[in-house]
Structure formats: C-alpha cells, structure tokens
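In the current project phase, the collection of sequences with tokenised folds has grown. A representative record is quoted in full directly below:
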Amino acid sequence: MREGSAIELEDASVQLAGRAVWGEVSISMARGEFVALLGANGSGKSTLLRVVLGALALHRGRVRVLGERAGARNAAIGYLPQRHSFEPGTRLRGVDIVRLGLDGDRWGLPLPLPGRAARSRRRSARERVARVIEDVGGGRYADRAIDELSGGEQQRLLIAQALVRDPELLLLDEPLDSLDLPNQAGVARLVNGICRQAGVGVLLVAHDVNPLLPYIDRVIYLAGGRAVEGTVEQVINAETLSRLHGVPVEVLRASDGRVVVVGQPDAPALHHDRHMQSSLAAQGHAH
C-alpha cells in the first residue's frame, strides 16, 4: 500500500449472494484528490463505497482507507448515500438535517451532559452546523422544511451534513442524480471548492461525467467486473471502453467539450444529457 493514499484496493474481489460483482480490482486515490466513479447500472459502484466504509467484506484482496483497514476511520469520512427524494410531509428543517450529521445516532439530540459542559457542547455544535451551511450556500433556506426545498437546495444541505464532522474523505453516491443541468453544475462546482479549499478527498459516483469535467482529477470506470483508472482522456476513449464492455464503443467530443459515448450496453448517462438525448435518438443512437 502506498503512503498517502486515501483509498487503495489491491487485487480486490467482491461477491454478493455468491455472484461476483467485480474482481482483481487494483485502484488508488490520493488524499485531497477529486475522483469520479463511473459505470453502468449494476457495475458495482455503490458496492465499492460499501467496501470503503467497511460495510461489505472483500471476497479476496486488500483494502486500506486513510491508512488503516476499512471501517477503522469512518469517523473521518463524510458519506452521502444515494437517495431519490424526501417523503412529502417530512417536517425536519434543513438545519436539522445537517445537525443529524453530528449526532444522527441520537436523532439530533445531544447527550445529557451537566451544566456548563452541555452548554458548551450545544454552542460548539450550533457553530459548526452554521459554518457548513454557509460553506454550501444554504443560509437562505436552511430554516425551511426540507420537503419544501428544491432538489438542488436539498442536495447542498445533505452535502453539508456529510461535511459537518470535518472529514478527510467524502464519499458521494450519485449526488447529481435527478437534478436539472444548472443544479448539477452548481453542486459539482461546490464539491470541487470543498475539495480544493479544505483538502478533502472526494470520490463521487456519477452517471454523467460532463458536469464534472472542469473539476475532476481522474476517473475510475467499472464495467464487466473490472476497473480502469486514469484521466478522462486515458479512460473515456474508444479503445479502453471497447475493451471493458467487450463490444465496439465510440467516443465523441462535442463542440462544447462534452463527452458523447455510443455503443455500450446499459450505457451510463455520461454520454448524454437531457438536451442530447433527442439529437442522439434522431441519429439512431438512442438505446
């Protein structure tokens, strides 16, 4: 294992219900690096996050996270799981959602400490919550009920929840999913700012790499039970993706710099956005 790595897997294999998800995966991520984790549905992206958190044991191989065994440094990891939406009628305020990142195991309620210790702890928690809410630009709406907020506003507060313990590593499972294009760009820009200014390593699962292109250092791409890592140019090209998927894949660069990938089965949406889908369909490439 290399010194200074935030995440490192060596010859790692995972099985679920006796079925191999991926195998012989050797990848690494440096501290303070911004990495996108890409791949089709079912390729094992969320499974990899579970391995990093120590929630799922490897079938074989090794994993180290922040220099220790997986799970040992979870207090230094901010984790935003995949979600679809809040249930209507969820009356928690945005600030309450953020506070759950500090003491969610107690449903946001501080331990009954005596007198001055209790006051000091509550003040410290309030200050920390307020700071991260301002960091994500959520001050204007954090006191409103979470189910009244837009998808982009909700996602910013959930990222604040993951940041409230001042983590060294941030794991984000599809934080751009179901957001419109301006909110995707805004959240991507926010995460990049956190990564660069605070030196927090970020591993972000995404279906669409395009909103991340101005910011990410590298990508990890899962397909066919294998993984490839490198820069966008090294990974998202016809030769590499054709080899991973086992079928011919074409990679195009749009005039605005966006990546368009055509040909792989169950393709992740990294090759299109809501505006590109109609044009691809007209060209006979939609699937």
About this structure: The longest helix spans residues 115-135.
